[in-house]
Specification:
InterPro entries: ComA-like_MBL, Competence_ComEA_HhH, Competence_DNA_uptake, Hlx-hairpin-Hlx_DNA-bd_motif, Metallo-B-lactamas, RibonucZ/Hydroxyglut_hydro, RuvA_2-like. With about 350 residues, this protein is α/β, with parallel strands linked by helices. About 30% of the residues lie in helices and about 20% in strands. It contains 13 helices and 16 strands. The structure holds zinc ion. Zinc ion binds next to helix 4.
Length: about 350
């Protein structure tokens, strides 16, 4: 798994000579996973903080050697919160700031970051936007003479020898901002992280083609919108943990029910910044922990094995007669899957389609 990752990174990486290029140079033979762990892993922790910035993204990373990266800064109104968070962790300098794409809920807060912290390298999608915030961001980078880089697909970010970081999506000339999202894949020993920005389903498909990126912790694309997190993508990267970053009662309806069901189908534990506030994942190269309670997304659903006759009738297309039949069915033997409800007389695929996202079996 790691081997193919290195090989692909090397193939793509050699074409691009940038300051990012680290240890994945052409001449160096790939090392085995075991050897590499022995060679480089110090057991020092890597911490990834998914800062609660309401509707938006802001992720602060501390690598084992004490380097830092901020991926997005939330909306402008969240900038002070992001700066305080970083200062409270003891930093005045951020080594890398990544603006995944120029939407306001990602770059707004970076204005405060650029004004109040020292930023060494600024990684930008290159996607030009005409907003005042975007122009202000560029102006600050220029005034402070910050190293400004637009990465190419497959570039490695050479931040810490214990953490392999790779840019797995970079489309400067994308037709929309979300598609331009820089996606960063980070591997710390046995734990891997995927930071997707607002990359959509088409980008997920492309990344699956270009890279082998098994993922332990996935930041769900586009705040849990159904424009991202396709089932085939999730079945490929197999996230154990999914982090959703969004604001409570946002006007977009994020996250979408169908996306939550996709995470459940692949068995991911789901965490939400709207439910838990800031979420920190810490890895030591071998194992990881999440300092929040998983979000029980099924709590609002109707359990067809225990619901009363009245509750069953909340479901579209289920009247008193069908509710009785559901109860008779489960008395013989409980439903094992939600699909099994179609065995009940009077419930066909059409009704099931209407109620699928509203029911559970345990
Ligand atoms: Zn967004």
């Amino acid at each position: 798994m790691r081997k193919s990752f290195i090989v692909i990174a090397t193939l793509i990486g050699v074409a691009v000579a940038s300051l990012f290029l680290g240890r994945q140079g052409k001449s160096e033979p790939p090392v085995t996973e075991e050897k590499k762990d022995q060679q480089t892993l110090s057991n020092k922790p890597m911490s990834v903080h998914y800062i609660d910035v309401g509707q938006g993204d802001a992720i602060f990373i501390e690598t084992p050697n004490g380097k830092t990266m901020l991926i997005d800064g939330g909306k402008k109104s969240q900038g002070e919160k992001v700066v305080s968070f970083i200062k409270d962790k003891g930093y005045e300098t951020v080594d890398y700031v990544v603006a995944t794409h120029p939407d306001a809920d990602h770059i707004g807060g970076l204005i405060s970051v650029l004004e109040q912290l020292n930023v060494k390298h600024f990684i930008d999608s290159g996607k030009v936007h005409t907003t005042e915030t975007y122009l202000k961001m560029l102006q600050l980078i220029d005034e402070k003479n910050i190293d400004f880089v637009v990465p190419k697909l497959g570039d490695a970010i050479d931040m810490d020898p214990e953490v392999e970081m790779l840019v797995v999506n970079a489309v400067e000339d994308a037709s929309n901002n979300n598609e331009a999202s820089i996606v960063v894949y980070a591997v710390h020993g046995q734990t891997s992280y995927l930071f997707t920005g607002d990359a959509d389903v088409s980008i997920e498909r492309q990344m699956m083609k270009d890279f082998n990126i098994p993922t332990t912790v996935l930041k769900a694309g586009h705040h849990g919108s159904d424009t991202s997190s396709a089932l085939d993508f999730l079945q490929t990267v197999k996230p154990e943990v999914v982090i959703l970053s969004y604001g409570e009662n946002n006007k977009y309806g994020h996250p979408h029910d169908s996306v939550l069901r996709n995470f459940e189908k692949v068995g991911s534990m789901i965490y939400s910044t709207a439910e838990s506030g800031t979420i920190t994942v810490t890895s030591d190269g071998k194992t990881y922990r999440v300092d929040a309670e998983p979000w029980n997304t099924l709590s609002g659903l109707i359990n067809i094995n225990t619901a009363s006759k009245e509750e069953l009738q909340y479901l579209q297309g289920i009247g008193p007669t069908t509710a009785d039949k559901i109860i008779q069915y489960r008395q013989k033997q409980p439903f094992c899957t939600t699909e099994e409800i179609m065995e009940v007389d009077g419930i066909g695929p059409k009704t099931y389609e209407q109620i699928e996202l509203k029911i559970k079996v345990k």
